[in-house]
């Protein structure tokens, strides 16, 4: 009843997304964790959600232009605020350094990383401290175009370290390698970065639709959390 003036039962929300296992993907269970949360939160508010998948840049642009209602899942950034409303956090993830188990590694500050060869993925931002250290050549970074390639280089000893989200990293290791190979890799527990991911709702939508969708989604998300079905951390 509280949402009676806002929500029409069964109204469709169209969400553009990229593929990012295990958080989002066309062919994975529930289309990924973030997709599952978005669907359930909107469903509790009377909406139906349809996902379509594109390269990340195109998914973002389609939502920014108002051709889709929203896109997931993204980090909050100042340059995105002019085009999007941000939902409450859907998930919290830690970026950690992966390495071979037979590689003796520990770190506390960025100066500790100077002697290592670090893999990274083109176009990825690993946080201000990392980006600055890379730009100033205080750390040695080799960038390639795919996460899987970095993990293969790591396994073969061509790089010493690879930063990636904990859950994503372990999912890709299981997907990419045989069990005996996967068992050769591990991660350091100290996070390089802790990141929250959000649903971005397009400001280009007509009328008050963006505000209405955000309110409905956040309300549904709180209901899931209060019920114990969902923990954003």
Query: Helical content, roughly?
Result: 25-40%
Put simply, the count of helices is 7
Regions with pLDDT < 50 over 5+ consecutive residues? Answer: 1-9
Radius of gyration: 19 Å
Distance between the termini: 30 Å
The count of strands amounts to 9
SSE order, one letter for each helix or strand: EHEHEEEEHEHEHHEH
Please report which band the strand proportion falls in: under 5%, 5-15%, 15-25%, 25-35%, 35-45% or over 45%: 25-35%
The outline comes out as elongated
Structural class: alpha/beta
Mean model confidence by pLDDT = 92
Sheet with the most strands?
A: 7 strands, mixed
Descriptive report:
The protein is of the alpha/beta class and 233 residues long. The chain has seven helices and nine strands, in the order βαβαββββαβαβααβα. It has helices at 33-44, 56-64, 128-135, 147-155, 166-176, 179-182, 209-226, and strands at residues 11-17, 47-53, 70-75, 84-86, 91-100, 117-121, 140-144, 162-165, 185-202. Strands 1, 2, 3, 4, 5, 8 and 9 form a seven-stranded mixed beta sheet that branches. Helix 3 (128-135) links the parallel strand 6 (117-121) and strand 7 (140-144). Helix 1 (33-44) packs across helix 7 and helix 4 (147-155) crosses helix 5. 32% of the residues are buried.
Topology:
Elements: E1 11-17, H1 33-44, E2 47-53, H2 56-64, E3 70-75, E4 84-86, E5 91-100, E6 117-121, H3 128-135, E7 140-144, H4 147-155, E8 162-165, H5 166-176, H6 179-182, E9 185-202, H7 209-226
């Amino acid at each position: 009843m509280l949402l009676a003036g806002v929500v029409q039962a069964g109204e469709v929300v169209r969400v553009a997304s990229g593929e990012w296992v295990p958080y989002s993907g066309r062919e994975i269970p529930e289309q990924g964790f973030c997709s599952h949360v978005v669907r359930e939160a909107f469903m509790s508010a009377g909406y139906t959600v349809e996902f379509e998948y594109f390269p990340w840049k195109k998914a973002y642009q389609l939502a920014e232009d108002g051709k889709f209602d929203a896109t997931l899942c993204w980090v909050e950034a100042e340059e995105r605020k002019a085009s999007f409303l941000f939902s409450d956090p859907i998930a919290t993830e830690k970026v950690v350094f992966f390495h071979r188990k037979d590689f003796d590694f520990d770190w506390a500050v960025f100066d500790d990383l100077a002697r290592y060869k670090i893999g990274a993925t083109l176009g990825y931002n690993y946080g201000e401290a990392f980006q600055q250290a890379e730009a100033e050549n205080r750390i040695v970074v080799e960038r390639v175009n795919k996460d899987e390639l970095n993990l293969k280089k790591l396994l073969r000893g061509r790089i010493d370290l690879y930063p990636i989200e904990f859950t994503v990293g372990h999912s890709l290791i299981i997907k990419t390698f045989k069990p005996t190979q996967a068992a050769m890799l591990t991660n350091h527990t100290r996070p390089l970065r802790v990141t929250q991911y959000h649903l971005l709702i397009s400001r280009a939508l007509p009328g008050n639709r963006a505000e209405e969708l955000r309110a409905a989604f956040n309300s549904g998300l709180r209901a899931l959390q209060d019920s114990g079905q969902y923990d954003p951390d």
